[in-house]
Amino acid sequence: MLSIVIVGTGNVARHLFNAFAESREVKVVQVVGRNKNCLERFSKMCAISNDFAQIATADVYIIAVKDDAIAKVSQSLTSKKGIVVHTSGAVEMDSLESSNRGVFYPLQTFTMGKTLDFKSIPICIEAKQDTAITVLRMLGEAISDKVHEITSAQRKKLHLAAVFANNFTNHLYRISESICLEEGLSFELLQPLILETAQKVQSITPKDAQTGPARRGDKKSIQNHLNLLKDKKQTELYTLFSEAIKKVYEEEL
Ligand SMILES: NC(=O)c1ccc[n+]([C@@H]2O[C@H](COP(=O)([O-])OP(=O)(O)OC[C@H]3O[C@@H](n4cnc5c(N)ncnc54)[C@H](OP(=O)(O)O)[C@@H]3O)[C@@H](O)[C@H]2O)c1
Question: 111 with 124: CB under 8 angstroms?
């Protein structure tokens, strides 16, 4: 059985903790974090500590703290023999101080209070030492059916792609919601459309899935939309996206 310590008590730490709690191959021996209130929720199931000088011994230490704090937190683990990993898509593996270091990046959007099936979540692993990859693969396979060994360069690009696919899309949902609310319409009206948009790219390419005025080259409809927009940023985004879409399909129009 692999023993692990989770450092951090936020979104990813909680989701990982819940997933490992269901596994027979992995035992979470301790959760470490600076926030006593957040630590309390783990106290019935494992040891907890808010003292980074009192981290227990384990096979793997998973640092799930905000990106900018990873390097500093890893300094508390330099004397440990186990593998030290972080869970970020964007941070260098070498920002970890430990010589036995790696990355354990779950490619999903984790939010408090939203339960997820970890089995289908890709876990991207990377390690400095070959022996560590074997351990990280075991750790990943204990909770997911999709463990991938990737390079640092690939992870950075994957994270960039994920920002476009998730973070920016979600921001666009927010704009859609505000436009609906301006007219007293419920955002619920858009939900079937949002689901279909996500579902159709499971079977056809994003290029083939594109529809809308910019895809068709309907200039009058585009101008009508621009006339309706009052917010300068929304106008800029609408224009930018329409131009980008038009460019992809201009030869077909
Ligand atoms: N959320 C996602 O969808 C997602 C997906 C994949 C990977 N990740 C990666 O997972 C990591 C954690 O993200 P998250 O979404 O779980 O973040 P989060 O919910 O904001 O939690 C951040 C955690 O970091 C702790 N922290 C912040 N600054 C610290 C410091 N200076 N020293 C010690 N602890 C500190 C916070 O403690 P306090 O409560 O005291 O502030 C909190 O426990 C990040 O590297 C992120 O890139 C996130």
Answer: no
